[in-house]
Design goal:
about 290 residues, alpha/beta, TIM Barrel, eight-stranded parallel barrel, two-stranded antiparallel ribbon, 12 helices, 10 strands, globular
Length: about 290
């Protein structure tokens, strides 16, 4: 082997190793991300260790996070902002309560602007179980109202599904379809939580394809094998497992998500093993080939 050939071979090896990282942590040649972390995953560690807890996402290579509004697990918003800036973690989006966003919209807008975020959403629609048509229509109206108020300030509203929206409705559709139909596509976008699609018996890839222009984010979360879901929107947090070890078909889901132009993917692991499981999830994502 000549020196030129050897050099070329070494460069190919280097490229093969670093190429997936060009798009950031948790990406591969096929899956381009970008991948961030939902800080709710670290809620217990933040309560115990404060700013020190954010060393974990920094060490893992994350550049993006999704945070909360009005609740920073014991940290002040000033301390959180300074910590994120110091560690070069960019807050892309935030979650807040449905009722809070409806009744305290200006406060939510002010905090979003404080952190420099252009996306604010909610992960739970206020309702009494079981979900029904009347409640879903009210939720849709609330979301349109919130979305309009936020849009006027340059902020996009989004809803994160939580499993209870998939009660049967009409003509083979569910109440989630009703919510999609009754919310303004410009004012209300969506964040798919994969567990809360699989848990109620739905197919993430199929749902992404059905509404290709509505999904802007995906929560990367896997559901433990053997867990039988329902329409409650609840399950033991220990049923969160590393991606690739649970029930979600990740190859199909991520391929479709990428095809329709999902903007960001946020890992959310609510289990007590989050510090062990997130690195496993990242390595899995980095191995994906479509």
């Amino acid at each position: 082997m000549t020196i030129r050939t050897l050099t070329s071979f070494v460069l190919l090896l280097v490229f093969a190793v670093v190429a997936p990282a060009e798009n950031g942590v948790g990406t591969s040649k096929s899956f381009r991300g970008p991948v961030g972390l939902q800080t709710y995953s670290l809620r217990n560690h933040i309560r115990e260790n404060g700013a020190k807890a954010f060393d974990f996402p920094k060490e893992q290579g994350f550049k993006y996070v999704e945070i909360g509004i009005g609740n920073h697990y014991g940290m002040s918003r000033e301390e959180l902002k300074e910590t994120l800036k110091k560690l070069e973690l960019t807050p892309i989006a935030a979650h807040a309560g449905h009722d809070f966003l409806l009744n305290n919209t200006e406060e939510a807008i002010e905090e979003a602007e404080f952190f420099g975020m252009k996306y604010v959403g909610t992960a739970w629609a206020s309702h009494r179980a079981p979900m029904d048509e009347a409640q879903m229509l009210k939720i849709a109206d609330d979301f349109n109202t919130i979305g309009k108020r936020l849009k006027e300030k340059g902020i996009q509203f989004f809803y994160h599904n939580h499993g209870f929206e998939f009660y049967p409705y009409k003509d083979g559709e569910t109440l989630f379809d009703l919510l999609m139909q009754k919310t303004d596509p410009d004012l209300v976008k969506y964040e798919m939580d994969t567990t809360w699609v699989v848990h109620p018996g739905q197919n993430p890839a199929k749902l992404l394809r059905k509404y290709p222009n509505r999904w802007i984010f995906v929560h990367l979360k896997d559901l433990k094998k053997g867990v039988v879901g329902d329409l409650s929107g609840t399950t033991d947090v220990e049923n969160d497992v590393p991606l690739g070890t649970g029930q979600v078909d990740w190859l199909e889901t991520l391929k479709v998500a990428q095809e329709i132009g999902v903007k960001y993917y946020f890992i959310e692991d609510e289990s007590s093993n989050v510090l062990q499981q997130v690195p496993q999830t990242l390595r899995y994502l980095e191995s994906i080939e479509f």
